[in-house]
Amino acid sequence: MRNFIFQNETSVYFGRGCVREYLGSLCAPYQRVMLVCARGELSRSGIGEEVSAILRGEGKHAAVFSGGSSALTYRQVHAGADAARTSEADMILALGIDAVIDCGKGISLAARCAHDVWEDYWAHPGVISVDPLPLGVIAAGAEIGSACSGRAVITNEEKHVRCARDYPRLNPRFALMYPSYPCSVPQVLSSGFGVFAHIMEIYLHHVFNRCWSRALFSGKHTAYRILQSVCAALVLIAMLGLMISAVPISREVFALLPISGGLALGRSVHMLSAYWGFLFMGLHLGVHWQTVTKLIFRRFSHPSRRRKILLWTLGTLFALWGVYALFSRDLPDYLFLKTPFVFFDDEEPLIFFFRDYLAIMAAMLWIGSLLAMGARRIDRAGR
Predict the structure, then answer these.
(1) Most buried residue among 58, 93, 362, 379 by CB atoms closer than 10 A?
(2) Is residue 132 scored above 90 in pLDDT?
(3) Residue 301: CA atoms inside 13 Å, Cβ hemisphere, count?
(4) Residue 177, SS3?
């Protein structure tokens, strides 16, 4: 038997009405409280109104720091620390899921440090020599393991690195867990919809292509037909990877199954399947692009040569932009697991995100159409 020491300084209050009953007394030693939450969190579930009313009733000054999304990063840790100093906060109150709680831990430490906490405490393990701002937690999600420990996972989006460290001095002073708040975040519904979508992808794909599937092993296998089969098989493998890897990830949906572990592997397979599947779908569409263009131009009685040249030129330019976007958005790092996490810029307009990913799809479509042209030429030469 191995000896160990267990210490947990977090007082946990669980139950209906615990926020209303205990928050005021728990915040009594502090005068200036800064709430840390994801954008829009305070307006959901009534949690914001209740917490604000309690703090006002206790005569507290409450400032609010809301990050870009639930995936708060080191950039938000820095901004939150500046906000805490500006508001002269003597306590941090984090409202949300694990990512928000971890951000609150980072803010409570960074607000008391004059140096770079990433380099000293996350990029490398360190020893905390300062007293972080006192931290309280109101758990508002199904993922609340961080509420009772000093462990914090911080993402540095500039370095594309995510590090986890466990410092007992970052333990929250208290954690309030009210079942009504997690119920407002439909984890089971959202996860279940994702699994259902993966299943329907496979089912619908084979329903609409059942005639092709039946004739897969009959007839002559030309170069073009082999190319079609390979592309279809790659898409199918990616779909199966998404569906199977969703099982260990979606623990709310499959809570009844005796699944333990496999979360890290499941996430890696899920990311690989998603990004490779995205490229394979573009390739698959490109292989059939001649059929698609025939259907499009059939709507025009006599499509002019100038129109065809214009569309071809615009498509080529858009595909070239897709090659640039493929590397500028670091997709090779995700495709080859150089980084185990996906990073998004929450402040980027969605239209730029969709523009780049549509361009990447266009680039793969272009490659697929060129491969199809080459396969057809091989078939014609062999006749």
Answers:
(1) 93
(2) yes
(3) 0
(4) strand
**Interval 164-220: pLDDT, tens:** 888 989 999 998 886 555 444 445 444 555 556 656 666 666 666 666 666 667 767
Domains of the chain from N-terminus onward: 11-183 (3.40.50.1970), 187-381 (no CATH)
What are 254-265's pLDDT values in tens digits? 556 666 666 778
What does the alpha-carbon distance between residue 304 and residue 62 come to, in Å, rounded to a whole number? 66
Q: What is the pLDDT of residue 183?
A: 44
Give dist(CA 352, CA 345) in Å, integer: 11
pLDDT given at position 181: 53
pLDDT, average across residues 376-381: 88
Beta carbons of 95 and 47 less than 8 angstroms apart: yes
Q: How many CB atoms lie within 10 A of CB 134?
A: 19
Query: Of all helices (H) and strands (E), which one includes residue 163?
Result: strand 161-166
CB 173 within 8 A of CB 9: yes
**CA–CA separation, 40 and 59 (whole Å):** 24
